[in-house]
Write a structure and sequence with these properties.
It contains eight helices and four strands; from the N terminus they run H-H-H-H-H-H-E-H-E-E-H-E. The radius of gyration is 29 Å and the shape is elongated. A four-stranded antiparallel beta sheet has the order 2-3-1-4, covered by helices on one side. It is of the alpha+beta class. It folds into two domains: 137 residues, no CATH class; 71 residues, 2-Layer Sandwich (Alpha-Beta Plaits). Helix content is 56%, strand content 13%.
Length: 225
């Protein structure tokens, strides 16, 4: 038998479905479902209420199981694996992700399904444990003080020096983000870093005769000062 015959025979044998028993399928899907439910509860407990989506959370469980099923199908036959590649290549996900952490849970569910499908159950349990520890520890680490937006409207365009003097007594760092001047009016937008005595600062600014209104708002952006 020549080398070409051996290569042809081994290639044709790849088209024959491997023996995946019903027990193997049930065990794989059961473990994938358990891991998916584990991801479900971790996401439910750790996600912010503003961004929490129950439908997205349920999809994580289904995605883990479906990915495991796809890996089982790919393992069973080369023909099926080639068909899966062609079928999945036309799938497009266009749902906007509101929270970047959702991508982590999405990739976690897909990875868990792949590992479950290959039968490495111990690996998926260890990885899930370490991912949970990392998410919990990083979530409860003390965060940097979030800057706030200070919006001031003054009836005197020359009132900026007096306003900055008051602001400087309460904050160490501030940055003027916007300055709008007219002949008889001025609008200031400042990014300030203040943790305490914010109400006192607002009241003292409001006491200035040139100031009409003052507003201090939370700012959740990542721009530092």
């Amino acid at each position: 038998m020549s080398f070409a015959d051996v290569l042809k025979k081994s290639f044709l044998e790849g088209f024959v479905a491997s023996n995946i028993t019903t027990t193997d399928i049930c065990v794989t899907m059961l473990i994938a479902a358990c891991v998916g439910l584990y991801i479900y509860f971790v996401y439910r407990l750790m996600s912010q209420k503003t961004f929490y989506s129950k439908s997205f959370n349920i999809s994580l469980v289904a995605l883990t199981m479906l990915t495991a099923a796809i890996i089982l199908a790919i393992q069973s036959s080369v023909v099926i694996s080639l068909g899966m590649v062609g079928a999945l290549s036309i799938v497009r996900f266009r749902t906007a992700i509101k929270n970047p952490m959702d991508l982590v849970y999405l990739f976690w569910a897909i990875s868990a399904g792949i590992v479950c499908g290959t039968g490495l159950f111990e690996l998926v349990l260890i990885v899930s444990l370490f991912v949970t520890i990392a998410v919990v520890v990083l979530e409860f680490l003390p965060a940097v003080k979030e800057p706030k937006l200070l919006v001031i409207n003054a009836k005197d365009p020359d009132a900026e020096d007096a306003i900055m003097e008051v602001v400087g007594n309460y904050v160490k760092k501030y940055k003027v983000k916007s300055r709008n001047l007219t002949s008889d009016n001025m609008d200031l937008l400042l990014l300030v870093s203040i943790k305490e005595k914010d109400a006192e600062m607002v009241k003292e600014i409001k006491k200035l005769e040139q100031v009409n209104t003052v507003a201090l708002m939370s700012h959740d952006g990542e721009v530092g000062i």
